[in-house]
Amino acid sequence: MLSDVYIYFSLFNLILVFLHRYTYKYYNLLLSSLFISIVSFTFVYITPRRLDIKLPYSKNVYRLENIKLKTVDFVFHHFVLLFVFVLYHDYYKDHKFGYSTAIAILLVLIYANCFQPYNVYKIEPPFMYLAILVTTFLYLLL
């Protein structure tokens, strides 16, 4: 049930963003939101695809493509990144190499290995690991 929902890493991150008052010191929301934004940008704009979402307790499959996919992408990925960036950029600038950064990288790696993004998004594993490296590098430049 819940495992069907949490195959989307962005939903897990979105819940932590809503609980940001309690989680930002323990989990690097900026790094994980940046990772999600980069992967979703690639998924939606560079190699456009469609996304079929099956919600738990529902037999319906929702197909997102074209403008629906771009709208959902902006609201759930890029807007969240902007929100986290505005709220916590100064905090994370001073705490770049803390344990919260290590936890964020570790959770992204665990997600990439456990949920097999290829089965969810049809994203090849080498691309996912490359995205993790690029995101970490960009985060360190912020």
Describe the protein in words.
The protein is mainly alpha-helical. The chain has one domain (2-141). It is built from eight helices and two strands, in the order H-H-H-H-E-E-H-H-H-H. A hairpin with a 6-residue loop joins strand 1 and strand 2 (61-64). Helix 2 crosses helix 4, helix 2 crosses helix 5 (66-94) and helix 4 runs antiparallel to helix 5. The N and C termini lie far apart (38 Å).
Could you tell me the number of beta strands?
A: 2
Q: Would you list the SSEs in sequence order as H and E?
A: HHHHEEHHHH
Strand order of the largest sheet: 1-2
Structural class of the secondary structure composition? mainly alpha
> What is Rg?
15 Å
Report the average pLDDT across residues.
79
> What fraction of residues sit in β-strands?
5-15%
**Per the principal axes of the C-alpha atoms, what is the gross shape?**
globular
| Integer tally of domains | 1
Taking the alpha carbons of the first and last residues, their distance comes to 38 Å
Q: Helical segment tally?
A: 8
